[in-house]
Every structure is written in structure tokens, then in C-alpha cells.
Design a protein that fits this description.
- Helix content is about 50%, strand content about 15%.
- The protein has about 325 residues and is α/β, with parallel strands linked by helices.
- It folds into two domains: about 5-215 and about 305-315, Alpha-Beta Complex (Spore Coat Polysaccharide Biosynthesis Protein SpsA, Chain A); about 235-300.
- α9 runs antiparallel to α10.
- It is elongated, with a radius of gyration of 25 Å.
């Protein structure tokens, strides 16, 4: 019988953690009763340096349900993508398949059974995909759709309307652990693994409690990381734009010379100033863009650990 590990990254989730634990344990119980997973399957909560009582609640849940609820405590806040990576690499040797899901229960836990069914059919990766975005605001829905279109235009392979709700087999997790980059964008890395995939579709719910941990600032940062970590097309676009502007500048220079010799030149400085500002801004943009790529190289070559595990509750427990 195959063992399932559900990985749940948590950051300041004290309001929802016990609700999430109860719901996910209920999923495990149903799947065990139906004979689809082994009775030693578990939920692995990953505490991403929370500043509230999240870790204390994880410990309480582990004591109350020692065979079903495990925990990983990271030494500091490293961000959602690193926390999820920590959970996946921790459970990779503990289970036959994993499902990653956020603690807020906006993703439909009932489709986990469908994911497990597709795993038994031979799928190594099963993506949870939203049918539509009715629960999003107009702004978030529009920006999200624009984001996926932009990623596609940049040549980054992603699954439309998929976040980080997915099933991965053990060999997919082991292969993923070989990707050692520090600029993480899991939605772009997972499709690169190349194993057989499938999708399940669901309607996203309202958050059960607490506040979103992904404000606009973090969403924009994630979008830039996704583009710059998987595509050099922005640099090519800046180069192309520079060539176009040089051609236009030559045409403008020819026009200015013809106008001068024909006596049609009018004194003025507006066009000159606007041109200088535009070209100066373009140069600064290009330099900044290249600088961001160089900064990413700088981070990668230092080869620092992506996260530090302080404590593990469950199989192979690691004490402080």
C-alpha cells in the first residue's frame, strides 16, 4: 500500500491550523478506509519562521495525533517557495507520493482523492487547477490572467491557473531535489521534470480564517522571479528595443538635416529634452535589468543553504 504525505507550508497560521489539521486528517482517514493509501500516511506541517503560535499548535497536533501529524520547524522565515521545498525534500524518503497544499484551505481537499487515483493510474505529477476565479477581486483576476499570458510570452512553461497544489510521486520529488537553484519558482521547475502528468480541476474557496500571506508586493516579486529564473527573453527584448530606437534616431537625424538645409528648422528644446529623458530611462532600465540577472548569478554562485531545519516532529525526529 502506498504512503501519502501531505505537505503544508505555514506562516503565521494560528487561526486556521487546527481547522486545516482536522480537514486533512479527515482526508487521510477516508483514503485509508477506501484502501487507496496506507494507514501510516501523514500530514507534514512546515513552520516558516512564524511569529505567532503556529509551531506550538503544530506540536499540540503532533502530541494529539502522533502517527498522523508531523512537523518541520525552519530556523527563520525563508519564504513560501523555500518552505515548500523544505517539506518536499523532507518527505521525499518517507512516502511514495506527496500532495502540497496551503494551510488556508482555499484549495479543495476533496480532489486529493482524485489526485491519488491518477497516481495509481501511473501519473507522477498531478496538478490542481482552478476552473475559474470567481472568488478573486477584479484586480487580482485580471493581473493573474495577465501574469500567465506574460509567462507564456516569455517562454516559461507553466500550467494555467495552477499554483502549488499538486501531487508528486517519490521519483518526481527525488528528481526535484536535484534542482539546487536559490532563485526558486516551483511552478516553472516542476514542468521541467518531464514525467507523465495530469490535472484535476476544482473551484477555489474563500479563506477559512486569517489573512492572505501573498500581498501584491510578494506576487509581483514571485512573477519577476519566475520570468528571470527561466527566461533570458527580457534581455533580448531590451536589445531589440535599443536597435529599434537607434534606427528611429538615425531616421530622426536625417529628417533634422533635411529640415535644416530646407530652412524649416524651428528653435525649441521640448523634443530634445523628451528624447534625452526617454533614452536615458531606456538605458537605466536596460542596465537595471541586466543587473538583476547578475544579482541572481551572485546569489547562485555563493551556494548558501536554501533553508536550515531546526526541528522535525515525526519519522526520523530531529530535536533542537
Amino acid at each position: 500500500m502506498d504512503r501519502l504525505g501531505i505537505v503544508v507550508p505555514c506562516y503565521n497560521e494560528e487561526e486556521v491550523l487546527k481547522i486545516s489539521s482536522e480537514a486533512l486528517r479527515g482526508v487521510l482517514d477516508r483514503l485509508v478506509r477506501s484502501g487507496k493509501i496506507s494507514d501510516d500516511s501523514f500530514v507534514m506541517f512546515v513552520n516558516d519562521g512564524s511569529r505567532d503560535r503556529t509551531w506550538e499548535l503544530i506540536e499540540e497536533e503532533h502530541k494529539a495525533h502522533p502517527h498522523q501529524v508531523f512537523g518541520v520547524k525552519l530556523a527563520g522565515n525563508v519564504g513560501h517557495q523555500f518552505a515548500l521545498t523544505a517539506g518536499l525534500t523532507t518527505v521525499a524518503t518517507m512516502c511514495d507520493m506527496s500532495v502540497s497544499i496551503d494551510a488556508d484551505l482555499q484549495d479543495d481537499v476533496d480532489v486529493i482523492e482524485e489526485m491519488v487515483d491518477k497516481f495509481h493510474e501511473g501519473k507522477d505529477i498531478v496538478y490542481g487547477v482552478r476552473r475559474e476565479r470567481k472568488t478573486d477581486t477584479f484586480f487580482k483576476r485580471t493581473t493573474a490572467q495577465g501574469f500567465y499570458k506574460l509567462m507564456d510570452a516569455m517562454g516559461v512553461r507553466t500550467v494555467y491557473n495552477h499554483a502549488d497544489f499538486r501531487l508528486m510521486s517519490r521519483r518526481a520529488m527525488e528528481q526535484f531535489s536535484m534542482y539546487g537553484e536559490r532563485n526558486l519558482y516551483l511552478r516553472g521547475i516542476i514542468p521541467l521534470l518531464g514525467y507523465e502528468t495530469d490535472c484535476v480541476y476544482y473551484d477555489r474557496k474563500e479563506r477559512v480564517a486569517g489573512e492572505s500571506k501573498y500581498p501584491l508586493r510578494k506576487m509581483l516579486a514571485l512573477a519577476f522571479d519566475g520570468i528571470s529564473s527561466f527566461s533570458t527573453r527580457p534581455i533580448s527584448m531590451v536589445l531589440t528595443l535599443g536597435i529599434i530606437i537607434m534606427v528611429l534616431a538615425i531616421a530622426a537625424a536625417i529628417y533634422a538635416l533635411v529640415s535644416y538645409f530646407m530652412g524649416r528648422v524651428q528653435p525649441g528644446w521640448t523634443s530634445l529634452i523628451l528624447s534625452l529623458w526617454f533614452l536615458g530611462g531606456l538605458q537605466l532600465f536596460g542596465i537595471g535589468l541586466v543587473g538583476k540577472y547578475i544579482g541572481k548569478i551572485y546569489i547562485e554562485v555563493k551556494q548558501r543553504p536554501r533553508f536550515n531545519v531546526e526541528k522535525v516532529l515525526g519519522d526520523g525526529e530531529k530535536e533542537d
